[in-house]
Amino acid sequence: MHTPIVKNLKGFFLSLTAALLWGMLPVALKELLAEMSASTIVWYRFLVAGLVLLIWLGARGQLPKLTKVNSRIRWFLAIAAIGLSSNYYLFSFSLNFINGETSEAVIQLTTLFLIIGGVLIYKEPFVGVQKIGTALIVLGLILFFNDRLSELVNTDNTETIGVLIVVAAAITWTVYALLQKRLLLNYSSVQILFLIYWFSIFALLPFITPTSLFQLSFLQLGLLLFCCINTLVAYGCFAEALNCWDASKVSATLALAPLFTISSLKVVVFFVPSYEYSDRLGWLSLFGACLLVIGSVLTALMPYISQLRSLRKANISVQ
Q1: Which one of 25, 30, 44, 274 has the fewest CB atoms closer than 10 angstroms to its CB?
Q2: Each residue of 19-37: pLDDT tens digit?
């Protein structure tokens, strides 16, 4: 009788851990970008994750084989790899222009883009709760940028450039996510990531400066290590959470990531008032961030809500 409760708690805490780690990531990346390029940071993250997955899958005899799938699937894998590696790079690169709070707020557009992609490509329904969630995401973004809307219209503004880069990162992640839904028919999620990581490791080689590792301070080395571990642990928690909890509930919990970013930077500013990498958001912007999260949670929970409705209808018909 206690098993469902235990699994629910485990799923929740694993999801919360992933959200916390992903929420803290832009804070670490922002500091690291002072000495290392975005492409090099991403390359080191992929290299560490790729090596660990190589050992993990190799020990289990589960290394994916490209020869067992047709050319169409290989093309899907290549496009998915370009999408995810571009997302990692663009998100990191955007932090050269904007701070962590803004990047995490704008990246919530992935929820909206994924809905649109699902409707257009997989003919998924677009129902009332999703419409409400979408409206809250749009309203949340407007309120988040309430004091900067006039500046964002100017394309010469560095913050506008940063926001546009994050929007591009959200689009590339959506491409990856939509393709993964198809690729899961041939590979496990871990195998897909393994292939994407190693594709990206070689694809990024012309654009990196690996020797910049030796120019990092002790603190920056620690931050790079955190970013590498983050790639593995956050995804590990995410994958394990899916084994314990409904995917919709996991996604809803992950939507809390922007709040962890804002909270982390609030703590940093409290102890270091002169800290420059924070937007020092006002109350209206914070309210907008909360609406973003609520909108994302509502859209993520839609499959769970639909399932509950179906069960209720089934029970009524039986009675």
Answers
A1: 274
A2: 999 999 999 999 999 999 9
For the chain, what is the total number of helices (H) and then of strands (E)? 14, 0
Question: Cα–Cα distance between 287 and 57 in angstroms, integer?
Answer: 44
State residue 103's pLDDT score: 93
Q: Is the dihedral of CA 109, 114, 117, 123 positive or negative?
A: negative
Tokens of 28: 């670490």
Q: What does the buried/exposed string (b/e) look like for 243-256 if buried means 16 or more CB atoms within 10 Å of the residue's CB?
A: ebbbebbbbbbbbb
pLDDT at residue 5, as a whole number: 59
- Take residue 7 and report the two structure tokens written for it: 């699994």
DSSP state of 305: H
pLDDT confidence of residue 200: 94
Residue 265 burial by Cβ neighbours in a 10 Å radius (0-12, 13-18, 19+): buried
For residue 42, give the nearest of 14, 99, 82, 78 by alpha carbon: 82
How confident is the model at residue 313, as a pLDDT? 66
Backbone angles phi, psi at 162, to 5 degrees: -60, -45
Residues in the chain predicted with pLDDT less than 50, given as ranges, are 1-2
Distance CA 192, CA 184 (A): 8
User: Within a 10 A sphere around the Cβ of 56, how many other Cβ atoms?
Assistant: 15
